[in-house]
Amino acid sequence: MSRAKKSKCRSRVARARAARRAAALASQQSREEVASAPVLGIVETRVPVSSDLDTGLDWYLVYTAPRREEHVRKGLEEAGWTTFLPLLRRISTTRHRQVVYDVATYPRYLFVAGVPDGAIREIDGVVDVVRDGPAWARVKPHEIAAIAAFQNAPPPPPQKRKPVDVNDSVKIMSGPFMGFHATVREVLGRQEAELLVGMFGAETTVRMNIGLLAAE
């Protein structure tokens, strides 16, 4: 091969390498932009409950590790338990994409049918079964029916309210925690806040749309 041809070949190889590096850099920058893109809005809807839900069963309340509700549900059902996990569906929108995901309506809680025994604690992610004194706390049929009705009802439109800040005391104006009082632990962008809510005899961390809160 002549010197001129070798030079042209090296030049083409160099251009190809430069193009690949530029493409890789652009791809990396795009991924970083998506990951760091500000959330423009979060739309939250309720996941309807199946008509097969038997509210007349003996339902009990299982307390799980943080964000392990779905994992626990699968483990319980694989072990033969009947479960009920109310869910909210969130659509998070940035400038680049939409992300759809489900979260528990009552964080760290789900319902199990049948009188629990000690083996239920062996399910990965189960912390305990909620008690009423020395006995397991049974959830009444009308309470299960009310939760199912809430899940199947259309949500009210969110209302614009004044901004909240860390350590603010707030009242939850809509949703499954309507009427509860909470403390703001962290403000997550313009749309969400992390709250500390007292429920079922324990304090639970909940993420919620700021539009559903009223500062006190």
Automatic annotation (TrEMBL):
<protein>
    <submittedName>
        <fullName>Transcription termination factor nusG</fullName>
    </submittedName>
</protein>
<dbReference type="InterPro" id="IPR008991">
    <property type="entry name" value="Translation_prot_SH3-like_sf"/>
</dbReference>
<keyword id="KW-0805">Transcription regulation</keyword>
<dbReference type="Pfam" id="PF02357">
    <property type="entry name" value="NusG"/>
</dbReference>
<dbReference type="InterPro" id="IPR006645">
    <property type="entry name" value="NGN-like_dom"/>
</dbReference>
<keyword id="KW-0804">Transcription</keyword>
<dbReference type="InterPro" id="IPR043425">
    <property type="entry name" value="NusG-like"/>
</dbReference>
<dbReference type="GO" id="GO:0006354">
    <property type="term" value="P:DNA-templated transcription elongation"/>
</dbReference>
<feature type="domain" description="KOW">
    <location>
        <begin position="163"/>
        <end position="190"/>
    </location>
</feature>
<dbReference type="InterPro" id="IPR036735">
    <property type="entry name" value="NGN_dom_sf"/>
</dbReference>
<keyword id="KW-0889">Transcription antitermination</keyword>
<dbReference type="GO" id="GO:0031564">
    <property type="term" value="P:transcription antitermination"/>
</dbReference>
<dbReference type="InterPro" id="IPR005824">
    <property type="entry name" value="KOW"/>
</dbReference>
